[in-house]
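[step 3/7] fold_predict: job queued, chain A
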Amino acid sequence: MAKKPHLNVVFIGHVDHGKSTTIGRLLFDTGFVPENVMRKLKEEAKEAGKATFEFAFVMDRLKEERERGLTIDLAHHEFETDKYHVTIIDAPGHKDFIKNMITGTSQSDGAVLMVSAKDGIQEQTKEHITLSKTLGIDQIIIAINKMDDVNWSEDKYNEMKEEISKQLKLVGYKPEEIPFIPVSGYHGDNVAKKSDNLPWWKGKTLAQAINDTFIPPSVETLSKLPLRMPLQDVYTITGIGAVPVGRVETGIIKPGDKIVFEPAGVAGEVKTVEMHHQQLPQAGPGDNIGFNVRGLGKGDVRRGDVVGHESNKPTVAKSFTAQIVVMNHPSVIAVGYAPVFHAHTAQVACRLTKILKKIDPKTGQVTAENPDFIKAGDAAIVEVEPTKPMVIENYKEIPPLGRFAIRDMGSTVAVGMVMSVVKKKD
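[step 4/7] structure written:
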């Protein structure tokens, strides 16, 4: 059986607009949550006094189940369409959304935006549309959910479509190229199966739209980029020694390669590459692997270090310029602010050294040069200095290592992408 191309899809949208329920339904209707598991969850949901939440329960319960087993990605669920093996990233509310979206091990190739036909566009809906665009997600599907709450009305669907289209246009999406799918996540109408309740709808189901609309970044394209593999962890295995593990984001790694870990500055030669306890001749983008390096000690490298070939080392930044969107901050952000930047698997405090421009996130126009401060809702171009060595890359050159989230006081303050990097001198 040939491996289907892998597609990462994030579900976004306002709280309570039916993300988890729709995902649960999608997994159930495509056969990726078995009938007996569903029955059990239905009973549990009832007992918990959440009778109509069984599909959302699937997501939460699976998440707990999986947190007990050691998987690297927690809120990720798999299903298949005709063409793709899809990983769904469930973004329950927005802190996790950002974390998953940027610092999670995966990058989203496309987004499904859920909007309730009953409640229409909310603040978070607008924010998620802006964010998706800022974070470089160009492929999006709109699911107009809870059609059962508006009596399956075609007029209501059209009205919603128009309202959402205006918002999409503001940030630079082209609504005419985007599918708008009417669904009822709870009843399962038009999620994976065509619905009799929507006789006026001649288009696709949500599952078909995911299959036909999204195109994953080709592994070929990512393979041709320089090798970059952020370390997730380092294990010590008796008789073998230190085994770094992580996900190859770009490039190819194989036994015999001369590699370097940055910013640790440790070099070595790859002895073996393993995935699921099997040795591989090579590994490429998307592969979660462990590998063994001659003479590497447990304390030499750590989570957040990035592997590259000696001939093209990962970039250790002295400083970098980035475009950021401030999500939520209780006051204002000025030069000197030093929160923690989460980029790939690294977490490093970085100091804001300059605010170069303030941008209107809705239009992308520059509204101020060198402003004194920025606040929630603003987008800006800033200059940043890491307080200790960290690897970060220009988003245009190596996309997976060019995005970050800024967290402070337990929440995500801002998100952004790197425009240019000044290398630290060796």
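[step 5/7] annotate
The chain has eight helices and 22 strands.
The longest helix spans residues 154-171.
exit 0
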